[in-house]
Structure formats: structure tokens, C-alpha cells
Amino acid sequence: MVIKIWHGSEKIIKKPMYNEGKIHNDYGKGFYCTESKELAKEWACKEIGKDGFANCYEFDTDGLKILDLSDDKYNVLNWLAILAFNRNFKTSLSVAREAKKYLINNFGINTDDYDIIKGYRADDSYFAFARAFVNNQISVDELERAMKLGKLGEQIVLKSPKAFERIKYVEYEIAENQKYYHRRLERNKKAEDDFTELLINADIKGLHIIDIMRKEEENSD
């Protein structure tokens, strides 16, 4: 199936290159895209006063091995375990350090064999939800609800040389900074406000990471 995907950037990228990019992104090195042009334009405007670009591509997914974290066989802890493995978690509390290791060991997924990963995008505002969970501040149910706040959207990440062979540049659209930088700020502000409310009304009776570790729950449970 051929789909249209977008990559928000400060520059025009006609030929995405395999094995480039930051190693500590959500899913490690890869080319991060979305099917939403509007989200791509927000992601392209990280700094005030400078327009960005929404690069458009056609992408043929036929025959590619896809890890779709929205599939029913996966849960939010699988996503969080991958995030914990790839991103820098500053864990000052002992429970958070143990939680990070526990998630990776018991809910982690080996992503090396996949050509594409589809899943949540954890920008800074949403990364706070992940930290709150490993710090034992919110429950699993609250984490799942939090990840839907602000309509964050899914990202599609190209991981393998085979995937990079399938992507074809089409065009670009300018992301007007005056419009999309402020939209990005509004989205983040909404997420932060919702998160604050979530912490104030946190359910102490819900299933927290400390409960999961004590029960020695695993991905199959």
C-alpha cells in the first residue's frame, strides 16, 4: 500500500538517509514522519520567527515488517519500555530507576528486525507523563488517558535500509512560523494543563508501577 507521509523540518529533505538522526529519539535512529500534514508543520516550527518545511513523500509499505504499537496485542507499557530504552530518563528516585529497568526487561520489544515503527510521539510535554508513571505518581489507566490528551497523533518511523528504499520525495509546503509555532505552543500548553489536573486528581487506588513490580507482572499477564 502506498501512503502519503510528511516530515516536519527546518530544511527541505529530498533524500532521507538511513542511519542518520539522533540516537536518543523515541524509537532510536530513524526518519520520523506523520500522516498529518498539520502536525508536520507544527513539528517544523520549533523556534519563533523562522518558517519550516513540511516535506511530503510517497511511501510503499508492501512487504515491510511493521511494528504497530496501536495494535491490540500491545499496550501502553510496551510503548513506554521502548521509550525508556531509547530516551534519556533522568531518574533520581530509586523506584523510578527500578521501574525503568523492570519495564525494559519485562515489557520491552526488540525493534531491530522491523522496517517501520508506528506509535505515539513523545515530545517534551508528553514525556512528562512517562516520567510521572515511572516515578509512581500516576496509574497505568491514567497514563493511557494522558497519552490521548491534546491529540498528539501517531508517528511513522523508517528504521531499515529496505524502508528507506521505498520512500519517494514528492514536494514540500512551507510551515508559516507565525501560525504553526503558536499552534505547537498551544498544544503543549493544553497537555501541560491536562497533566497538572491529572496529578491533582490522581487515583491512588489504580494500578501503579510499584504494584506491577511487586506482582512481578510481565507482558503476557
Structure, explained:
By secondary structure, this protein is of the alpha+beta class. The chain has one domain. Helix content is 39%, strand content 19%. It is built from 8 helices and 7 strands. The chain starts with a strand and ends in a 7-residue tail after the last helix. The model has no long low-confidence stretch (mean pLDDT 89). It holds the Pfam family DUF3990.
Main β sheet profile = 4 strands, mixed
CA-based gyration radius: 18 Å
Form type: globular
Arithmetic mean of pLDDT: 89
Order of helices and strands: EEHEEHHEHHEHEHH
Total of helices: 8
| Main sheet: strand order | 2-6-5-4
Strand residues, percent: 15-25%
Q: What is the domain tally?
A: 1
Calculate the terminal CA-CA distance, rounded to whole Å.
34 Å
Q: Number of DSSP strands?
A: 7
Parts with pLDDT < 50 across at least 5 consecutive residues: none
Which class of secondary structure composition applies to the elements?
alpha+beta
Helicity, in percent? 25-40%
What topology does this entry show?
Elements: E1 2-9, E2 31-33, H1 37-44, E3 52-60, E4 66-68, H2 76-86, H3 94-107, E5 116-120, H4 124-134, H5 140-146, E6 154-158, H6 161-165, E7 167-175, H7 177-200, H8 209-214
Parallel strand pairs: 4-5
Antiparallel strand pairs: 1-3, 2-6, 3-7, 5-6
Helix pairs in contact: 1-7, 2-3, 4-7
Keywords:
3-stranded antiparallel sheet, 39% helix, 7 strands, alpha+beta, 4-stranded mixed sheet
What does this entry show, briefly?
The protein has 221 residues and is an alpha+beta fold. 39% of the residues lie in helices and 19% in strands.
